[in-house]
Amino acid sequence: MNNNDVLKKLRVALMLRDDEIVDILKGVDFKISKSEIGAFCRREGHPKYMECGDQVLRNFLNGLVLHLRGTKENPKYPGDVLKSGSQQSTSKSVPTKKSTVPYPKKGKKKS
């Protein structure tokens, strides 16, 4: 298992989008673009595939710890962070179903 596999598995397990990964890396002063994250997550034979280096994975893991646990001064509970992240992602991707009110059929009147 290489660094790309670790990054992909964490991305799927934690339901992270590319822009969220970029924000996590910004939290540890590591600049990277969304297209680079996409290149790390491609199949190995793809023409735009890139190897994820040790430095990228190390900074992502350090940023992920800060993202989930917070800092000493401002601690967070990881469960709350994951719940809020999953609610935001599901509310955007799952359309809400309109409630239907049963109306009486035309022609039938109650007496």
Topology:
Elements: H1 3-13, H2 18-26, H3 34-40, H4 54-69, H5 78-93
Helix pairs in contact: 2-3, 2-4
Q: What does it look like?
A:
α2 crosses α3. About 6% of the residues have low confidence. By secondary structure, this protein is an all-alpha fold. It contains five helices and no strands. Helix content is 53%, strand content 0%. This is DUF1456 family protein.
Record keyword descriptors for this entry.
111 residues, mainly alpha, 5 helices, 53% helix, flat
Helix content: 40-55%
Low-confidence blocks of residues:
90-96
Q: Summarize model confidence as the mean pLDDT.
A: 83
Question: Which term fits the overall shape?
Answer: flat
* Secondary-structure class: mainly alpha
Task: Calculate the terminal CA-CA distance, rounded to whole Å.
Answer: 74 Å
| Helix-strand topology string | HHHHH
Sheet with the most strands, sense and barrel status: none
Number of helices: 5
Rg, rounded, reads 22 Å
Give the count of structural domains.
Answer: 1
Question: How would you concisely characterize the structure shown here?
Answer:
The chain is mostly helical and 111 residues long.
